UniProtKB/TrEMBL annotation:
Pfam families: Pkinase. Residues 71-349 form the Protein kinase domain. This is Serine/threonine protein kinase. It comes from Nannocystis exedens. PROSITE patterns: PROTEIN_KINASE_DOM, PROTEIN_KINASE_ST.
Length: 1184
């Protein structure tokens, strides 16, 4: 919500009274006492109940000046049966309010909305949210304003308390709801949709009943708004929540049988629903929790509720009896009123006899003793005193009794207050730590995990929120451990050959670390700024160089070196770079390019022989040129002079080298030299001094790798796209070329910028810096699957065993080497030709290998199903291929020659030429093919004769249900057909506008149920989805606002359908009469896939990977920049998002079927295991 200006002055009381009068006049309260509202005399405002078009607002009542200017509307936070509820600021009265807006604008919905507003305004009770105002937006949509109650629904409270003993505290909220419903009944109003989701528990413990959208005013004899004629309940199978008498209304799991049968209901129907709420509190699950949504309606009609005594064996028998009586099958067997229901609950809480329970004599005695236990105890003592002491003792005991009772009451009250304060403090602490952890995700992932390690995870909701943030921190690249010791920001860190690390801070303090143990110690302090560190490659030696002196360190011994003669003026960083030989025998200051500030005077290089004590200096003679390089053994210097002539100096003698123009870096063995080519345009070459051979490399060399290799940058002259490749300096061979990257992703090119590209000199590690992250991968194939969200941290290095370290403020973050994910193994060198609908199987190939069938999650292969398939066939644009989730592969060429390969072998057959689409069932043997003339062939088995269908237009997409019971076909004209063996002809289930250029039409992606023969087709441009059930032949349409690129996914069980809706939201539908639940997302969804039943992976339009916990409704960005942004042309390509039970997530882009992998997650789901894991991570990150 935008910032609110200063709080306005509160109006005078007479102004408020006049406003109340106008409000009530709008909603039909014509019989108000004139003393309450003097302005009501003679009021003739039309009633909203009588005519919904009388709702005030500019589009309906032009004479009224009301507008949106009074309210500052914020984000939506809830969705009801009729509308959406959002937070708003009342500028006139200076308060926050809740605003409910109508989702639909048809007359029936608007009439019902007006009825809800009228009923809400008429019911003035503490347990019912008061209505403040009504109006219309400038665009004509009606709204009304209510009191804003901060809190959670009773459903959320129940979910937070897995133990019965904790849920019993919610009984008082059930009583408060019953009181509010009883008040409504006395005023002639039935709620008809009572459920825990419609009972809101405020922060102060108050409980209010909300969402009166389905309420019935029994004092108004007029008919209710009818259901939408366009979607009758019986035709589509979708239960309407806005119906007349004779149809179903309400929420099935809390609905009395007579209401489910469409019969008239009275107050005892609401009593049944209150009993169902009590059932949910006691059992922890709603009635019919184990009943499939398709069988739910019949079970509700029968009233066959699971026995609460079995569901809640530990629940007090009296409460079970109250719930069972309230939920009796026959209305006459229930409580006669909500008051009686609430009174019985109060009897239980105060220890009195409950009407609904039949007590034994022993239970009665025990109940009386429990209720009067203090009095009984004191009375027993009094009897003993009477026998021994007489009347004085009796009087004394009475005083003791009264004092004991008073003390007990005070003690219980104090204990209750202390427990409440403890709960409040724990909740506030948890909320503060969770807020810290979420904020730290964008700045310091170690701090984020450190905050989570201190969170109390005893509540399920808190544990789930903590796990989501921990998963985000780990996925974004939280370090394995943090090294702490420096008092000032670390300027540089280098790795030594023994696996240790050396760091220096901005003040010149030098430390050495054991990154495996997380320990460190201070070595010395140069007391200078801008100290540089260089390390030997093969021995644990290093040098720290300041402006005046340098100190070398080897085997625990230090050696001071005077470096004052080296030019270190204002731009000294541009003049010389420092390097130590591989064995630590030499230290050199080497000339560097200085194009920005001219070429300052000075020799090409200074070299100190460290084997001598004191170190002996050799100054390379001549005027310095652009560059110089030191050989690994420290004996040879290659350089150029001011005339760009190149020389190689060994043993104090220099010899010219005309084949190159400037030396850059020696190879790891010292046998080859990376240098500038003498011709134009400037390029890098590999030069071998022994043979004087010159081999071209590329536009720029970024780093020298082990085994005489170099990481080279090149750019396509036409597209400007930059690619990386690994080249052999000995042969010039290209060992691999990485995928192109945007030119802006790599910063400050050149081998002199060692912090942009880092190679592990003793292993396979490769690290590449982008503007906001480091990418880690392998020198073997150039794949960089591991992303560390480190911001612009530059100073990175490899230590032993493949560890990577990075300076981070005053600390050093260390990442242990991670084994490659099986799903990512080898993908860098592969192309994906096609994938199955579920993303689990793919046909892959490379320049050096034929097509292979790969399990995309395990990384294993089964080549039996692609035997004989060539890369040329796979890339033929006029051929079609498909792969099934079980591993079958279908290929049909343009001439109609077809081949299906499965575990049984290869099946060759022929079809007509002109195939345009093909699909396979993920289970079973069904397959289908579509053609340009509108024909579709369907096979239940490849050995059986196909059935032919005529659709009248080119078939552009096909989808087969998992078991092969049905086919969804999309045509070029936008029509969508359902094909099944049980039907005589194609059934048109939807139609989509293909646009003015139908040749470019891309049909929406069909989503298939994982078990049943059900298909979901998004309908862009119509703001709806079509759900077709092949078993019944029925098609239901669900109205919702689709984004530009619709996407949907089923949960593994098929119980939940997730659909992306516009405005960065996702809607969760669970069938039956449930209206669905909307969850907010940090990004617009471009792909959805469930991870288990209650977590959702989301691919965002920005390329971010999100994770949503659907149980608590929270989302977090797991990986930023996981894929390139999905906008422009890319947004229109098909994206497949696939997951497995371990959380491994794959994203496939249809344009070139590139694959992005998120490895399996290591963060435990169980709260106890999560707490242990977080404590261990906290210790790792805490330092020593």
């Amino acid at each position: 919500m935008p910032p609110v200006t200063a709080r306005p002055e509160i109006p005078a009381s007479h102004v408020v009274r006049a406003a109340q009068a106008r409000l009530l006049a709008h909603i039909g309260e014509a019989d108000l006492d004139s003393s309450r509202s003097p302005t009501m005399a003679g009021a003739s405002a039309p009633s909203v109940l009588a005519d919904p078009t009388s709702w005030p607002g500019p589009s309906r009542a032009p004479g009224r000046p009301e507008s949106d200017e009074r309210y500052e509307f914020g984000e939506a936070f809830a969705t009801g049966g009729l509308g959406v509820v959002r937070r708003a600021r009342d500028r006139r009265l200076g308060r926050d309010v809740a605003v409910k807006e109508l989702l639909r604008t048809d007359p029936a919905a608007e009439h019902r909305f007006a009825l809800e507003a009228a009923i809400t305004a008429r019911l003035q009770h503490p347990g019912i949210v008061p209505l403040y105002d009504i109006g219309r937006h400038s665009t004509g949509e009606p709204y009304y304003c209510m009191k804003l109650v901060e809190g959670q629904t009773l459903e959320h409270q129940i979910r937070q308390r897995p133990r019965l003993i904790d849920r019993l505290a919610l009984i008082e909220h059930v009583i408060a709801a019953a009181d509010a419903v009883a008040y409504a009944h006395r005023h002639g109003v039935l709620h008809r949709d009572i459920k825990p989701a419609n009972i809101l528990v405020g922060e102060l413990g108050e409980a209010v009943v909300i969402d009166w959208g389905l309420a019935k005013d029994t004092t108004n004899p007029g008919p209710e708004p009818s259901t939408d004629a366009g979607s009758p309940a019986g035709a589509s199978g979708v239960v309407s929540t806005m119906t007349e008498h004779g149809t179903i209304l309400g929420t099935l799991r809390y609905m009395p049988p007579e209401q489910a049968r469409g019969e008239a209901v009275d107050a005892r129907g609401d009593v049944f629903a209150l009993g169902a709420v009590l059932y949910h509190v006691l059992a922890g699950v709603p009635p019919y929790a184990d009943v499939d949504s398709r069988a739910l309606a019949s079970r509700v009609v029968e009233g066959a509720v699971d026995d609460l005594r079995e569901r809640a064996r530990e629940a007090p028998r009296e409460l079970v009896a109250i719930a069972q009586r309230a939920m009796a099958l026959r209305p006459e067997d229930r409580y006669a009123s909500a008051e009686a229901f609430a009174e019985d609950l109060r009897r239980f809480l105060t220890g009195r006899l409950v009407d609904a329970h039949r007590y034994s004599a022993g239970e009665v005695v025990r109940l009386w003793l429990r209720r009067h236990r203090a009095v009984v105890g004191v009375a027993a003592a009094s009897l003993a005193a009477l026998a021994a002491g007489g009347a004085y003792a009796v009087q004394n005991i009475r005083h003791q009794r009264d004092a004991a009772e008073t003390a007990q009451l005070h003690a219980e009250a104090a204990r209750g207050e202390a427990e409440a304060a403890l709960v409040t403090a724990r909740r506030q602490t948890n909320e503060s730590l969770l807020a810290q952890a979420r904020a730290a995700l964008d700045s310091d992932l170690a701090d984020s995990l450190g905050a989570l390690a201190r969170v109390d995870l005893s509540e399920e909701t808190i544990a789930r929120r903590a796990r989501l943030l921990a998963l985000a921190a780990e996925s974004r690249g939280a370090p394995t451990r943090v090294l702490r010791g420096h008092a000032r920001p670390v300027a540089q860190v280098v790795g030594l050959a023994d696996g240790s690390l050396v760091s220096v801070d901005l003040a010149g303090d030098v430390w050495q670390w054991d990154p495996q143990q997380g320990t460190g110690a201070r070595l010395f302090d140069l007391h200078e700024q801008d100290v540089q560190l260089v390390a030997a490659r093969d021995v644990p030696a290093f040098a720290a160089i300041g402006a005046r002196s340098a100190r070398t360190w080897r085997d625990g011994a230090a050696q001071e070196i005077d470096v004052g003669m080296v030019d270190r003026g204002m731009y000294r960083a541009l003049h010389y770079r420092w390097q130590m030989s591989a064995g630590g025998e030499a230290l050199a200051a080497l000339g560097e390019p200085s194009s920005s500030h001219g070429r300052p005077p000075g020799p090409p290089a200074y070299v100190w022989d460290l084997s001598q004590k004191p170190a002996k200096l050799d100054v390379v003679p001549g005027a310095r040129g652009l560059t110089a390089a030191l050989s690994p053994d420290g004996r040879t210097v290659a350089y150029d002079d001011a005339t760009h002539a190149a020389f190689i100096r060994t043993g104090g003698a220099s010899s010219p080298t005309p084949a190159i123009a400037g030396a850059l870096e020696f190879s790891s063995s010292g046998q080859h030299l990376v240098a500038w080519a003498p011709d134009q345009p400037p390029r890098h070459v590999a030069y071998t001094p022994a043979t004087r051979e010159v081999r071209p490399l590329g536009r720029w060399t970024l780093a020298i790798a082990p085994n005489d290799r170099a990481l080279v940058l090149d750019a396509d002259d036409f597209t400007g796209m930059i690619s990386l490749s690994m080249r052999s300096l000995a042969t010039g061979e290209t060992l691999w070329t990485g995928a192109p990257v945007e030119s802006g992703n790599l910063v400050e090119w050149g081998p002199t910028q060692e912090y942009d590209v880092v190679v592990d000199p003793h292993g396979d590690g490769l690290a590449l810096r982008t503007p906001d992250a480091w990418l880690l991968g392998s020198q073997a194939d150039g794949d960089l699957p591991r992303r560390l969200d480190t911001g612009d941290r530059r100073h990175g290095t490899y230590a032993g065993d493949g560890r990577f370290a990075l300076a981070h403020h005053d600390d050093i973050h260390v990442w242990d080497a991670a084994p490659p994910s099986p799903s990512a193994q080898g993908l860098a060198s592969l192309h994906v030709g096609m994938v199955s609908v579920d993303g689990r199987r793919g046909v892959v190939y490379s320049e050096k290998s034929p097509p292979r069938l790969r399990n995309m999650f395990s990384g294993t292969y089964d080549d039996s199903c692609v035997d004989g398939l060539s890369v040329e066939q796979l890339l033929d644009r006029e051929a079609r291929a498909a792969v099934g989730g079980s591993g079958r592969v279908l290929f049909v060429d343009k001439a109609g020659k077809a081949c299906l390969s499965d575990a049984a072998g290869r099946h060759a057959f022929a079809v007509a030429p002109g195939i345009t689409s093909a699909a396979l069932a993920d289970a079973g043997t069904a397959l289908t093919a579509g053609f340009g003339d509108g024909a579709v062939l369907t096979w239940r088995d490849v050995d059986a004769a196909p059935r032919k269908w005529e659709l009248g237009a080119e078939v552009v997409a096909l989808a087969v249900t998992r078991g092969g019971d049905g086919v969804v076909a999309h045509t070029r004209t936008g029509k969508v057909f359902a094909l099944t063996d049980r039907a005589d002809k194609p059934l048109e289930i939807a139609a989509v506008d293909p646009g003015p250029q139908s040749s470019f039409y891309r049909p929406p992606q069909t989503v298939l149920h994982p078990h049943a023969a059900v298909a979901v087709v998004p309908l862009p441009g119509q703001d709806a989805i079509a759900v077709h059930d092949f078993a019944s032949g029925a098609t239901a349409r669900h109205a919702l606002t689709l984004p530009a690129v619709p996407t949907a996914a089923y949960s593994p069980s098929g119980a939940t359908l997730a659909v992306a809706v516009a405005g960065r939201r996702v809607l969760l539908l669970q069938g039956g009469d449930e209206p669905g639940r909307e969850l907010a997302l940090p990004d617009e969804a471009r792909g959805l896939a469930f991870v288990g039943e209650d977590e959702l992976a989301v691919l965002g339009a920005t390329g971010a990977l999100l994770r949503v916990d659907t149980r608590i409704g929270e989302a977090a960005v797991i990986r930023r920049g996981w894929t390139p942004p999905l906008d422009g042309f890319v947004a229109q390509t098909r994206t497949v998002l696939a997951t497995d039970e371990g959380g491994t997530t794959l994203a496939f882009q249809e344009a070139d079927f590139t694959v992005t992998v998120q490895p399996a997650e290591s963060v435990p789901r169980d709260p106890a295991a999560l707490a242990t894991w977080l404590q261990a991570r906290g210790r790792q990150l805490g330092g020593s």
